[in-house]
Amino acid sequence: MVFGADGSQQQQWLELPNGCICCTVKGDFVKMLETLIERKSSFDYVFIETDGLADPGPVASVFWLDEAVESPLFLDGILAVADANLLPRQLADSTQKKAAIRQLASADSIILNKTDLLQPTQLDSVLALIRTVNTVGPIHLAVRGKLVNGGLANVLDLQAFSQRSAVREVDDIKKSVAGVECSVACDCSGHEHGHGHVGTVAIEEEGVVDKKKLEGWLADLLWIDEEEKEEKLRKIFRVKGIVAAREDGEDGWYSLQGVGELFEVEKLSLDRKERSWEWTKDGWKSRFVVIGFELDQDLFQTSFRSLKV
Question: How far is CA 128 from each of CA 87, 106, 170, 171, 180, rounded to the nearest angstrom?
Answer without folding.
Answer: 12, 17, 22, 21, 9
